[in-house]
Write a structure and sequence with these properties.
25% strand; 7-stranded mixed beta sheet; alpha/beta; 421 residues; FAD/NAD(P)-binding domain; binds flavin-adenine dinucleotide; D-Amino Acid Oxidase, Chain A, domain 2
């Protein structure tokens, strides 16, 4: 086998890196994950993620972890309410009783990031993740790499996999491609003990998700199993707004002042999200890698997940792509018919580039219309009739097609019943 007696260093222990570690370790490959976090519990993991049958769930199935997933996912957490900017419910999936099952193509069960990370961590041998290992630099050494971490440690690896997320430090060793500014900044926050801290939004959320639209802005709220919830505003800003605005994002009063001004047409109901002094806010400027992403394959280094194909989260594909990358990369590297490493890596990258071209375009399409004046109507029109005319994005073109319920389902959407006029 190609990877026999080779040391694999995965930089970054997010869902992509850990899935790859599990899949390689199942084949007795010598793999380590170098993660900057001090330990598994040091950072509160973000909000819920929905995993898709053909990507995230397929990777978990191959990793032998689907039964574990079934005991940790949160049935009902995917139920969505669409509201206007006054928190008036316009569409409500909680009214609908029918739910999908595992194996249904459109089933998108939700799991919190923490439990997903735990499932993956518990599936690999305990010494696989080397915590407190923030990548600093590396240089070629023979056919491999000499990697140096911020803590002063250095190691040798035959193959390096950059799984270090959107601001990847490994990316520049693989490609000159740079993320492109999308014009949108998200502001992410988390509310602990939501029932008492933000009781009205907690009630509106009902253990599921809220998508609110208005005045070219978005607000997405998603419940977590520990009684907290995460939320993220999205609005048009200049690049580097997070630095230029002068806002101290650790000071909720300053953030509330910003929200009142920036979301001035939005109802007072939402201010609850910004009134708690303990809420932590993280600005997330949104970039997208070039949609025609391509590079010449190397024989000893590649990228996966956000490090390779960073895109905004407005199609809910990021984690699913990261886990599918891990699956396809593990298969390409361990395929007995592949005779050289560069060929294996090229084979994986070819699949990833092709997939990203389509998924990235759909994501950018969503990012644009969700931050336009037609967002709410556009979203609701997807649910308003059984058969409707709707501009949707397929491949490289915007085409007008007739959407039938099965197509809505294909897109992870549930048709019609719950429009509230
Ligand atoms: C607000 C928000 C909401 C989102 N919602 C969704 C959603 O609903 N559905 C969805 O599919 N996706 C969503 N995403 C995107 C999703 O989170 C990412 O696509 C996914 O986490 C990518 O996985 P990854 O393993 O590639 O990278 P990450 O999850 O970013 O993991 C990277 C890991 O690398 C580590 N690391 C970083 N730098 C270094 C370094 N120098 N040295 C060592 N380690 C390092 C990090 O600590 C981290 O553990 C959302 C993103 C945001 C910001």
């Amino acid at each position: 086998m190609l990877l026999q007696n080779k040391k694999i260093a995965i930089i970054g222990g997010g869902p992509g890196g850990l899935t790859l570690a599990r899949l390689l370790q199942m084949q007795d490959i010598d793999v380590k994950v170098y993660e900057r976090d001090l330990n598994a519990t040091v950072r509160i993991q973000g909000g819920a993620l929905d995993l898709h049958t053909e990507s995230g769930l397929a990777a978990l199935t191959k990793a032998g972890l689907i039964e574990k997933f079934k005991t940790h996912y949160r049935p009902g957490a995917d139920l969505m309410r669409i509201t206007d900017n006054q928190a008036k419910i316009k569409y409500d999936q909680h009214i609908e009783v029918k739910s999908l099952n595992f194996g249904d193509k459109n089933h998108r069960p939700e799991i919190d990031r923490g439990p997903l990370r735990d499932i993956l961590l518990n599936s690999i041998s305990p010494d696989t993740v080397v915590w407190n290992s923030k990548f600093q630099t590396m240089k070629k050494s023979g056919n491999g790499w000499e990697i140096v971490f911020e803590n002063g440690n250095s190691i040798f690896a035959d193959i390096v996999i950059g799984a270090d997320g959107s601001n990847s430090k490994i990316r520049s060793y693989v490609t000159d491609a740079k993320p492109i500014w999308t014009g949108i900044t998200m502001l992410e926050g988390a509310i602990k003990d939501a029932e008492t801290t933000a009781p009205n939004i907690h009630k509106l959320l009902k253990g599921g998700k809220i998508f609110a639209f208005g005045n070219d802005k978005t607000l997405i709220v998603s419940s977590k199993g520990d009684g907290s919830f995460g939320f993220a505003t999205g609005c048009k800003t200049e690049e580097f707004w997070d630095k230029k605005s002068g806002i101290n994002f650790n000071d909720s009063k300053q953030v509330l002042t910003w929200f009142k001004k920036e979301f001035t047409e939005w109802g007072k109901e939402w201010q609850e999200l910004f009134e708690n002094e303990k809420t932590l806010f993280i600005p997330r400027p949104q970039y997208c890698m070039p949609l025609d992403l391509k590079w010449e394959a190397h024989s000893n280094i590649t990228l996966l997940g956000d490090a390779a194909q960073w895109m905004p989260p407005y199609a809910g594909e990021g984690v699913n792509m990261a886990m599918l990358d891990a699956l396809q990369l593990s298969e390409a590297l361990t395929n007995s018919s592949v005779t050289d490493l560069k060929e294996g890596i090229a084979d994986y990258e070819k699949q990833m580039f092709k997939r990203f071209e389509k998924i990235g375009q759909g994501t950018m399409f969503n990012t644009k219309w969700m931050h336009s004046p037609k967002a709410l109507n556009e979203m609701l029109s997807m649910f308003s009739t059984n058969i409707l005319k709707q501009s949707v994005f397929i491949g490289k073109m915007f085409v007008s097609v007739t959407l039938v319920p099965s197509f809505l389902k294909l897109m992870g959407l549930k048709p019609q019943q719950n429009i509230i006029s």
